[in-house]
């Protein structure tokens, strides 16, 4: 009989793979990036599985793996297919947020939950519209529609993450930041040094934080179902950034 791998071992393996990938990007070692990148989301999904996390969370991470792998090829058809895979992952996250999130609990200092919710909607909408408007003239014509549609879905996911508290909200905001860096590359804007490193760093942090938040909230719901008291803290929000998708393919 084979022994199950422990959650700690799998989480450690994910951390080592993430470190290896980031070091490979900093060193511009493409073979290392090609080896480490496809390992990342399967290891995180395996960790979630050993924690008995929701199947939709595992699916979201595996859709992320599909996008990660497709974007390694660099060609436009692979890029569009990768964008579609990430989009499917965002739909999984949205269903999870609906299932486990506190749709009325946009906690924060001062003001009513409704007013804070309205402010968040306005902030995310402004980030979406502003970013797409700025990028639009510089995007290739055949990429404008897919980028705009993906950006809308991504921003909706990031906004929905605020219903799970600070951890998930930070994950959603980092996903927006990561894909905004990708979008500026697609639009051929000036890039910071090693943009692929910044893209992967924010993306890995985003996926980990989202997975952690969903695991916590799904666990809370399971304990509530068995009559166990739960302390539901961590109900705050973050401020967004904005949009799109080509996850460190280089």
Question: How would the blueprint of this fold be written?
Answer:
Blueprint: H1 7-26, H2 30-50, H3 55-71, H4 76-100, H5 113-135, H6 141-161, H7 166-186, H8 195-225
If you had to describe this structure to a student in words, what would you say it looks like?
It is globular, with a radius of gyration of 18 Å. The protein is mostly helical and 250 residues long. The chain has helices spanning 7-26, 30-50, 55-71, 76-100, 113-135, 141-161, 166-186, 195-225. It contains eight helices and no strands. Helix 2 packs antiparallel against helix 3 and helix 5 packs antiparallel against helix 6 (141-161). The relative contact order is 0.15.
Main features:
single chain, 250 residues, mainly alpha, 8 helices, 72% helix
What is the beta-strand fraction?
A: under 5%
Low-confidence stretches: 228-245
Share of helix among residues?
over 70%
Order of helices and strands: HHHHHHHH
Q: Please give the alpha-carbon distance between the first and last residues.
A: 41 Å
Q: Biggest sheet: strands, sense, closure?
A: none
Number of helices: 8
* Arithmetic mean of pLDDT: 87
The value of Rg in angstroms is 18 Å
Shape: globular
How many strands appear in the DSSP assignment? 0
Which class best fits the helix and strand makeup? mainly alpha
